[in-house]
Amino acid sequence: MADYTTILDGLEVMMRLGIHPHEATPQRVLLSVRMTVTYPAPPGGDAIEEVLDYDFVRTGIRALAEGPGFALQETLVEAVAALCLGDPRVREVQVRSTKPDVYPDARVGCEIVRRR
Question: In Å, how far from its chain's centre is CA 76?
Fold first, then answer.
């Protein structure tokens, strides 16, 4: 067995996220994902078919961002974690969501870790 950490960091999307009236329009959201992925053996052929192609995570997050939106960051990060855990090779996922423009002097966010 071989474990690797696959990272998608700082993905910026525009989406509806929040409970306040001014959050009814899309706002900038930053997402970072770290997945612990287990393979039967270290990749030997230097081919994408041997490993998790993280394009599915990026594409899935973009699809979530284009949807109706979320009231809570907690709900958003759970949806992203479920997306990642849809691949049976993902043993653990850490997801962080940040809204950088809510306050002029701070970012607000939520982070979770989910395991099989």
Answer: 9
